[in-house]
Every structure is written in structure tokens, then in C-alpha cells.
Design a protein that fits this description.
This protein has about 475 residues and is of the alpha/beta class. It has helices spanning about 1-20, 25-45, 50-65, 70-80, 85-110, 145-160, 170-185, 200-205, 220-230, 255-265, 285-300, 315-325, 375-385, 400-410, 445-450, 475-485, and strands at about 115, 125-130, 135-140, 160-165, 190-195, 210-215, 235-240, 245, 275-280, 330-335, 335-340, 345, 345-350, 365-375, 390-395, 415, 435-440, 450-460. α10 (about 255-265) links the parallel β8 and β9. Belongs to the aldehyde dehydrogenase family.
Length: about 475
């Protein structure tokens, strides 16, 4: 009975969408609706409410990944030429650590929490009950194609949801590996995988799931949010944007160069939180560029194409887009590439202006434009005139500069005197703001993002304050004014 009404509900919603002219692929959407309905029913059955069940599933996920570690590492190499070290450090090992952290803390997070109660509710108690949303949809991007679907999945499992996972179609080997390891080990009514591109994703985002967790571009994020709005499905959007890196004149140049070059050229610059561009104090700009050249040599050698630690661009379309951003006359390092091999040399461009093509959109590749500033207020102003970035990095030893930037610029998250690594802490909520996204996850924040926090006030049946009940009186008004002021 319950299942039928759920299906009817889903069908009515689907009809609604047709009436409003939203294109729905009939076959796909029917299959998706049935999958969502089965998953919602599974969560309603209560299986996933048990903390023991969730812990068991997290352990199983870890074991399954361990058993398939070489398949995953191999797929990451084939799709993005990730070295075994990078594949482990930034994807597989990161996921193990995330699972271990959740296993360690889950019991504590999942407990209903007693919180304070205002005096006006004298004799009552207040509780917060975290509960699963139901069936959550996780859509992943191509750049960390394993980690960026597994990490949200860990949050979804921890919070007691079922999940539909849609890996990126641009990394087909990783997508197939994820599909194999999840399909072979989890029932579809609990964890399902849908592989495919726009069409498959379109059917999924128009379905009445209970939460959509999307990681990808701002452009597609808008499409996802619009589709979700039709069913009033809440969304978490982990998007991108142009993340600035400010370098003032007080820095240790060697250290700054090492940390910037690492964060920028990791995974060929295809990192959502990579420093997109540098804003360098003009006094130290030539010295910093010289140090970054040295650092590139130290990391990747004379010919980065031969380095095991230097990855590849995901596909021709991205390679061509990046090529179009290079202005030869401003290149001071790199600039060359090999389209056949998807190789794009680590490239630094100097004397870049805000009006240059490379500053129009998120670069998402191994091109580092260097802009200069002489007045910090102007540098801050130019950042604040643009969409709020996902990350911001500040290299400085000056406390006043640090306070000023932290107080005056809004951004998702970032580092002082480093790049990218804020992402690795389970204690820091990770997410964007404004055009770089909404919602956050990692560690406890993942659990909370995938949970509805249900608020309950438990009233005493022995004490009954009649103050709020009619008929009102001037005496009652006087009294309530004492409480509500
Ligand atoms: P993308 O937006 O092109 O694709 C992401 C997902 O959306 C893919 O699974 C794809 O199949 C799907 N998709 C693409 N077009 C669609 C459409 N029209 N309708 C429905 N679904 C569609 O992103 P990408 O190129 O894979 O990844 C790069 C972007 O992701 C960058 O902007 C980067 O900054 C961002 N990103 C953000 C984070 C973060 O945590 N904030 C992490 C990684 C990447």
C-alpha cells in the first residue's frame, strides 16, 4: 500500500514535469523512478536506521575498495595518468581515512542530542534527532573521479541513507571500476550506480530523490538546482570558480614557490581548489617567478612529459579549451603540449591583466597566470568584484595583512601559507559560497549534511503553564513581555 502510493506520487510528479515542458527521457525516467522508489522504501523499512548496520556497510565499503585497489589505481592511470602515489594519496588513501574517521565517530554523531530549553518551556526537554533523508543522489566530476563520489557516499551511508551514485562519464575506466565494486557488493535498493552522461543525469536530477549532492561546474550546478526545485529536493552544490592566491612581500619565497607549484600542478591543475591565479606584490614578483621555475624543475625535471608525477588532461575538448587560454607573448614557462598524448606543459604566464582571456573563466588546467599588485586594498577590491571563490590562499608573515584578508574577503575555505590542504582536514567543513556552491561536508559535517536534524520539544504533562492559552488579558500580556523581550 505504502509502496503504491509512493509510485503514484512519483508518477504524478513526472506528469507534472511533462506538463511544464521539461524534457524527460521516458524509458530512463521510468527506470529511475522505480529505483528511487525502491530505495526510499528500503530506508523506510528501518534497515539503515541501525548504527550497527551503517558501521558494517562502511567496513564493507573499505574492504571492497581494498580488494579492488589495483583496479581503481589502474583506472585512474588510464583516465588521468595519475601516478600510484597520487592515486593513493589524493583518492584511495584519502577515502580509507575518511571511512576510518566516520567509523570512529559515528555512534557519537548519530545519538539524539539533548539541548537547552528556554525558561518559558519550564518543565520541558529539547532533543535533536538526526535522521536520514532517504534516497540521495550523488553526481561526481572527472578530476578526482573516485574520491569525489566515494567521500559523499561515506557521508550518505553514515547518516543512514540509500544512495544512487553517478560517476563522471569523462573518466570511463574509473566509472566502470566504481560501478563494478558497488554493484558486486551492494544491493541496488541500498546503493545503486548509474553510468552515463547528460541524458542519464538529466533523468536522475528530475526524479523525486530526497537530496542531491552535486560536485561539478557552476554551469551544470544551475541546471541541477533548477531540476531539483521542481520536486523541492534539497541540494548540496560543490562547485568551482577562480580561486586567488595572494603573495605579499613578507613571504619565505622558497616555501611559497614550493607550496604554490605543488597545489597548482597537482593532477595537471584539474583540482577544484587549485590556486587559479596569483596576485603577487610587484616587489617580489620576479623573484617568485624564478623560484617557481626552479620548483617545477625540482618536481618534474627537465621534461615534465617524462615525469611519472605529472598527469594528463582528461580529454581533447579540455585540452583545446586550455590551449585557447594561452597567450604566447606572456608565457615565461611552458606553453607547449602534445594533444595526442593529452600532455599540457606546466605553464606560467606573466604580466597578465584582469581583461585577459585566461581571467574570464576557471582555468582548471596547468596554466598559472601571474598578476601583480602594489596596494593590498586594491587587490582585495578586485577579488571582491568577482564571484565568491571556492578557495583563497594567502602567503604572508604579516598579521595585519592576514586579518585584513580574512575579514574582508568571502570565500569557501582556504589556507594561510599553503594551498589545497584545508580540504584534507575532517574538522573543517568543505564547500563553497555564492557561485562556488552551497552546503559543506567532510568529517562530522558530512554526517550532518546527509542528515535531517529533527527538533523535538518534550513537554511535561505535570506542569501546564496557561499563559499562552486564550482568553488573553492585560496581566498575561504583562507577564509574556517579561519573557519575550
Ligand atoms: P561538469 O559540471 O561538467 O560535470 C559534473 C557532472 O555533471 C558529471 O557527472 C556530468 O555527467 C554531469 N553533467 C554534465 N552536464 C550536464 C547536464 N547538462 N545536465 C545534467 N548533468 C550534467 O564538471 P566536470 O567538468 O566534471 O568538473 C569540473 C568542475 O567541477 C570544475 O568547475 C571544478 O571546479 C568543479 N569541482 C568542484 C569540486 C568541489 O568540491 N567544489 C570538486 C571537483 C570539481
Amino acid at each position: 500500500m505504502e509502496e503504491n502510493s509512493e509510485l503514484l506520487y512519483s508518477d504524478q510528479r513526472s506528469n507534472l514535469k511533462k506538463e511544464r515542458g521539461i524534457p524527460v527521457n521516458e524509458m530512463d525516467s521510468k527506470a529511475v523512478l522505480s529505483m528511487v522508489s525502491k530505495q526510499q522504501q528500503y530506508v523506510r523499512s528501518g534497515h539503515t536506521k541501525s548504527i550497527e548496520f551503517r558501521l558494517e556497510q562502511l567496513k564493507r565499503l573499505k574492504t571492497v575498495i581494498q580488494q579492488n585497489e589495483s583496479l581503481i589505481a589502474d583506472a585512474l592511470y588510464k583516465d588521468l595518468r595519475k601516478s600510484p602515489f597520487e592515486a593513493y594519496a589524493t583518492e584511495i588513501g584519502y577515502v580509507y581515512d575518511s571511512i576510518s574517521y566516520c567509523i570512529k565517530h559515528l555512534k557519537q554523531w548519530a545519538k539524539p542530542k539533548r539541548v537547552a530549553t528556554p525558561i518559558i518551556h519550564f518543565g520541558s526537554k529539547s532533543y535533536i534527532y538526526p535522521e536520514p533523508y532517504g534516497s540521495v543522489l550523488i553526481i561526481g566530476p572527472f578530476n578526482y573521479p573516485f574520491m569525489l563520489v566515494m567521500d559523499p557516499l561515506i557521508g550518505a551511508i553514515s547518516a543512514g541513507n540509500s544512495a544512487i551514485v553517478k560517476p563522471s562519464e569523462y573518466t570511463p575506466h574509473v566509472s566502470a571500476a566504481i560501478s563494478k565494486l558497488l554493484r558486486d557488493n551492494f544491493d541496488e535498493s541500498y546503493i545503486a550506480v548509474v553510468e552515463g552522461g547528460k541524458e542519464a543525469t538529466s533523468a536522475l536530477i528530475h526524479a523525486p530523490v530526497d537530496l542531491i549532492f552535486f560536485t561539478g561546474s557552476t554551469k551544470v550546478g544551475k541546471i541541477v538546482m533548477q531540476a531539483a526545485a521542481e520536486n523541492l529536493v534539497p541540494v548540496v552544490l560543490e562547485l568551482g570558480g577562480k580561486s586567488p592566491c595572494i603573495v605579499d612581500r613578507t613571504v619565505d619565497l622558497d616555501l611559497a614557490a614550493q607550496r604554490i607549484v605543488w597545489g597548482k600542478f597537482l593532477n595537471n591543475g584539474q583540482t577544484c581548489v587549485a590556486p587559479d591565479y596569483l596576485l603577487v606584490h610587484k616587489e617580489i614578483k620576479p623573484a617568485l617567478i624564478a623560484k617557481m621555475k626552479e620548483q617545477l624543475m625540482a618536481f618534474y625535471g627537465e621534461d615534465p612529459k617524462l615525469s611519472e608525477d605529472y598527469g594528463r588532461i582528461v580529454n581533447e575538448q579540455q585540452w583545446d579549451r586550455l590551449r585557447g587560454l594561452v597567450n604566447e607573448s606572456k608565457v615565461v614557462v611552458g606553453g607547449e603540449g602534445d594533444r595526442e598524448d593529452m600532455y599540457f606543459a606546466p605553464t606560467i604566464m606573466n604580466n597578465v591583466a584582469w581583461t585577459d582571456k585566461v581571467m574570464e573563466e576557471e582555468i582548471f588546467g596547468p596554466i598559472l597566470p601571474v598578476l601583480e599588485y602594489s596596494d593590498l586594498d586594491e587587490a582585495i577590491e578586485s577579488i571582491n568584484l568577482r564571484p565568491k571563490p571556492l578557495a583563497l590562499y594567502l602567503f604572508t608573515k604579516n598579521k595585519v595583512t592576514e586579518t585584513k584578508v580574512m575579514e574582508q574577503v568571502s570565500f569557501g575555505g582556504g589556507c594561510i601559507n599553503d594551498t589545497v590542504l584545508h580540504l584534507v582536514s575532517p574538522y573543517l567543513p568543505f564547500g563553497g559560497v555564492g557561485a562556488s556552491g552551497m552546503g559543506a561536508y567532510h568529517g562530522r559535517h558530512s554526517f550532518e549534511t546527509f542528515s535531517h536534524l529533527k527538533s523535538v520539544l518534550k513537554k511535561s504533562t505535570k506542569i501546564n503553564l496557561s499563559l499562552i492559552y486564550p482568553p488573553s488579558s492585560s496581566k498575561k500580556l504583562k507577564l509574556i513581555k517579561k519573557f519575550l523581550k
